[in-house]
Design goal:
The chain has about 290 residues and is mostly beta strands. About 10% of the residues lie in helices and about 30% in strands. A hairpin with a 5-residue loop joins strand 2 and strand 3.
């Protein structure tokens, strides 16, 4: 076995190889007996603890957790004490704050008095003295027809179709002839007059300034002391003339005169100017303002 080694390295070389092999086996044996762990002759010294770092930003909110189970139902509470019904007793004469009698109400709380109202004077409906207050306005509508040709009156002031204008609240005094006005759809005032041939005609005139009737059929208005009747539609064949009168026989109650308006209203007279040859009708609105 050693002949080839001796021939190659000589005896000193062979000895060196054998020594190396023993050294390797010795190191392996020592490592095995120490459990394969290397040992150190000195342990490193622990350094001082560093400062605490800054707190980082808050993280995002986590997802909402599942809904919890419904809790158990609580016990039923004890029943309350029965209530006390209120009682009432009427009384007459003066008692504490009630000078005209009333009803005393007693209950579990402090008693209370319900007083009768004092006997007052009879009140007037709507307004003092049952008349329209000064510069107050009331409004309404008027209409007539439709009338067939055979039902229409003969032409001229002797005939006409009457339409009543009634004031819900009476005026304190009647209105004279110059304070009643019929206004057509163009905003002009219509006047009935007799021409030289003794025929009746109608003409439209401009209202004086300031206008006594500044409104329209859709928004009727009247200045104080004026009655304004507005035309929405007035149809006749060939045409109708309209005038405002009180009572032709001067027998209308509440002081109405032949021309003008009474305390409780007026009369609108639609007069055919020529012989009728068709149907006729008319309607509109009115306003009156107390002086």
């Amino acid at each position: 076995m050693f002949s080839p080694l001796r021939n190659r390295f000589g005896i000193p070389g062979v000895i060196s190889v054998i020594a190396l092999v023993f050294a390797m086996f010795g190191g392996a044996y020592a490592a095995t007996n120490n459990g394969g762990k290397a040992t150190t002759s000195a342990k490193a010294k622990k350094g001082p603890r560093g400062p605490k770092g800054a707190t980082g930003p808050a993280g995002p909110a986590g997802p909402i957790g599942p809904k919890g189970d419904t809790g158990a139902r609580g016990d039923t509470g004890a029943s309350g004490a029965p209530g006390v019904s209120a009682t009432t007793t009427s009384f007459s004469g003066s008692k504490e704050s009630c000078t005209a009698g009333g009803v005393e109400v007693k209950s579990a709380s402090a008693p209370a008095l319900v007083c009768n109202g004092k006997n007052g004077k009879n009140g007037a409906p709507w307004t003092p003295d049952n008349t329209l207050p000064s510069e107050a306005t009331e409004t309404g509508t008027w209409s007539f027809g439709a009338l067939s040709e055979s039902a229409q009156p003969s032409p001229g002031p002797g005939g006409g179709v009457i339409s009543a204008i009634s004031f819900p609240v009476a005026l304190e005094n009647p209105l004279g002839e110059g304070h009643v006005h019929f206004i057509n759809t163009a905003g002009k005032e219509l006047e009935l007059f007799e021409n030289p041939s003794f025929e009746y005609e109608i003409k439209a005139i401009d209202q004086p300034n300031p206008k006594p009737c500044p409104g329209t059929a859709s928004t009727p208005e009247a200045e104080p002391g004026e009655l304004c009747v507005y035309e929405t539609s007035l149809i006749g064949s060939p045409r109708l003339a309209s005038q405002l009168i009180g009572d032709p026989g001067k027998g209308l109650p509440n002081g109405a005169s032949e021309w003008g308006a009474g305390r409780s209203g007026a009369i609108l007279n639609a007069i055919p100017l020529t012989a009728p040859s068709g149907f006729a009708f008319g309607f509109g609105a009115w306003a009156v303002t107390a002086p």
